[in-house]
Fold these 2 entries.
Entry 1:
Amino acid sequence: MENTITGFSETMSRLRRATQRDNKEIEFWSARELYQEFGYSKWDSFLEIIEKGKENCSKIQVEPRHHFAEVRKMIEIGKGAHREQIDFVLSRTACYLIALNADAGKTQIAWAKAYFIVQTRAQEVSKPIISDADERQRLRENLKKANLELGGAAKEAGVDNFGYFHAAGIRGLYGKSMSELKAKKGISQKDDYWDRVSGLELSANEFKAQLAKKTIAEKKKNGELNGQKQAEQEHERVGKTVRETVRKETGIFLENLQPEPSLKKLLSVQKKLSKTKAAIPAATIQIPDAAIE
């Protein structure tokens, strides 16, 4: 697999399968074909991530078998002998959850997040698998963690003005400064921008941070980057790369997205409800076992 988002997208398209039901195309992937593309050399290790994804479904009252359909098939092992092999038919949502639970240190997971998170947010916005506030909160925490790790890599590379450094990444991703971005979206300059953005924006920014952390660390190690200015340039370059990825996959420029209701206020209201989470209807599409044969 080519180590770029384009290469990952091409791989996912090649491995993608589809079946028809009620005049609708249902897409899915085979876990056995997918796990090495996610950077796992052992099936058992990937199986642990699948189980975590299934647990996430159960926690949010979504039936796991609608997205992780277990199938068993006989495979030839030589000299006419066969043995049973377990596989999973994975929906796009299942791949989304696997990317969230997988080892973030693997380069392939960065590509997986960019591909499946952006695609899932764009295509399943009308039927989210978890409450919007809860999802935004989780993605907000992921972004905080990713930015802290990016800050560590930037410090090692010689960055001492982190305001300028992070501004460069924003400029690359949005084509605007944070001040201009807030003005365009009607967000008060004194308000926290990340409190008012969608899961798609949070995901894109997390991916930018993860990718920039990796490229800055690698270029510093190879003697290709050193100091504030070069780190800023690399962060801006990565921001532009992610910007183009989002545009190519969704047709969206992030700065054109409308602001979301305050996450802080939504969580406050949600906390006061008698039930912490509203029941989420199970998916109406279940991938048939025969689809993988």
Entry 2:
Amino acid sequence: MARVIATEVREIITTALTDAQIDAFAAAATLIIDRYATQCTTAGTATLKEIERQTVAHMISGAGTQGSGQRIASRTFGNSSISYQGSSSSLDFSSSQYGQTAMMLDPCGILADFGKPRASACLL
């Protein structure tokens, strides 16, 4: 069961998604945070709930369902230009302000590696 509901997510992100659509993101985030909780046993209930809320917002921002969800790094007004911090195509938590907040809340430092390729060896 998700730790957060749509109205709680809407407190931190503006989106045109319906509550049912946000709840679908929350269901996916719950699976991620449940797995995370097995590795980070020092994260309390309130911390897990807030990490999950930030993760839902991170997923929504990455899905292109509202604004970029990223912090603006620079702006130019002559001939209009804008650049963002992070990478919008990246799955890691550093790619949105919400993911960055989730990483700051992570007492174990696990989320910083989420979405990064794992090392592997091929033995011939």
